[in-house]
Design the sequence.
């Protein structure tokens, strides 16, 4: 009994850490995209604050991101498939511009997904921000309307199109490897393997 139990556990562990397979765990982008820094392995998370799968991924992805090596550059991109999503892209861009991502990213998810608060609307966002500790609301909303943030909204829209993102979360590594849908833990494992693959390619 114990022998079979041990074998079963080994098989489960083997599946959990199975080598990644092209076409199953990830695909090659039809049109690879240039990376911001060719000396680093770029990792882009295409997500949406309205995506339940992105919400469920966050608790697993966050600990992984806290331990990223220095040669890995990570960024989030709010997908923009239409005008209604631009408000969330503006929100992501403002978080980055004001350095408040660490404070606001998870609370925004909770507000949108659990409390059904539409933070894509500036008046709703402003009122909600007043309840968030350590946030300079005036500074945040000033950045929210800035030229720089406008440019980033356009950039996220263009990236959604250029990377041909059809679902979220999709994580793109090195501008060419795009993950396929998977459970959160497996998705992070796939990303980790793709980073290792891209790192090896950089050294060639």
Sequence:
């Amino acid at each position: 009994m114990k022998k079979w139990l041990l074998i079963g556990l080994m098989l489960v562990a083997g599946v959990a850490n199975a080598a990644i397979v092209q076409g199953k765990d990830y695909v090659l982008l039809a049109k690879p995209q240039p990376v911001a820094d060719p000396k680093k392995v770029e990792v882009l998370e295409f997500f949406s604050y309205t995506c339940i799968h992105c919400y469920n991924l966050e608790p697993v992805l966050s600990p992984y991101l806290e331990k990223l090596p220095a040669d890995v550059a990570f960024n989030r991109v709010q997908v923009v498939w239409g005008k209604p999503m631009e408000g969330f892209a503006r929100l992501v861009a403002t978080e980055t511009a004001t350095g408040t991502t660490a404070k606001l990213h998870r609370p925004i998810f909770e507000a949108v997904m659990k409390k059904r608060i539409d933070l894509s609307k500036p008046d709703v966002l402003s009122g909600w921000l007043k309840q968030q500790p350590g946030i300079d609301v005036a500074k945040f909303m000033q950045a929210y309307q800035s030229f720089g943030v406008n440019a980033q909204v356009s950039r996220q829209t263009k990236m959604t199109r250029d990377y041909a993102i059809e679902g979220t979360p999709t994580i793109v590594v090195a501008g060419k490897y795009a993950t396929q849908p998977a459970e959160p833990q497996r998705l992070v494992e796939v990303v980790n393997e793709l980073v290792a693959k891209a790192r090896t390619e950089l050294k060639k």
The chain is about 55% helix and 10% strand. Confidence is low (pLDDT under 50) at residues 1-16.
